[in-house]
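Bumping with the actual sequence this time:
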Amino acid sequence: MEQCGGAGHSIEIAKRLSNKGLLIGIDRDTEALQSAKERLKEYKNIIYVHDNHDNIKEIIERLNIEKVDGILLDLGVSSYQIDEKSRGFTYMQNGPLDMRMDKSQTLTAEYIINNYKEEELANIIFEYGEEKFSRRIAKSICEYRKKGKISTTEELVKIIENSIPKNGLDKHGHPAKRTFQAIRIAVNNEIEPLYNTIKKCIEILNISGRLCVITFHSLEDRAVKQAYLDATGRCTCPPDLPYCICGKKKLGKVITKKPILPSNEEIKNNSRSKSAKLRVFERN
């Protein structure tokens, strides 16, 4: 049996499995699940689950499944979500400040932008967006919203652009890119539970089962890399101790010593794959 952390990647896996195994497709986005159901309607060996991959262990338990043979986690926002301006993920088109992967949740980008304190906004933009002008942007947002609610992506983009000095503009990317990434991560709580999610995934793998994780920015990749390293059982005790007391348990090995990167051909065919990194862990 195989497990898929994103419904968008179900197609090729389902074709490979045919009717010999079971594929579980998990996604927070009901529209992504519906699209996968339509494209995979000829396959009967798929279970679709509207949930968060952070709950993967609980999902498997609900399905009365003890272990799985493989898991693929495709992290971050999907191309469909970016391209659909009504979802509010993109700074390239005007739309509502939404950014929810799961539209049934209550927290939105609009709420964060209009209600979080200046310090909270600055911390989010700095930590999740690695934006060096985070404090200036947060201050501008708070000043702007005194005049009225900030409701659209276009409004937020203009505030960001006016907050960054001209000599500080990134020549290789849109000035709003890092802030939009940060707000999106905060809305969907993408980073905080990730380390534990990786641990849960490894725990439910069969012997020789593999976990494959695709990340798209350094914060995700860092959390995955650290979780993999800890799962190899590396001792974290001080070197001067005569014996180990940390109790680290070896759960498997890292297959990819360095992440697998997209080929030039793949980047040419899909420019959004440029920042993708694939790391693989095998259970023992």
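The tokens above came from a reply further down the thread. Confidence is low (pLDDT under 50) at residues 1-8.
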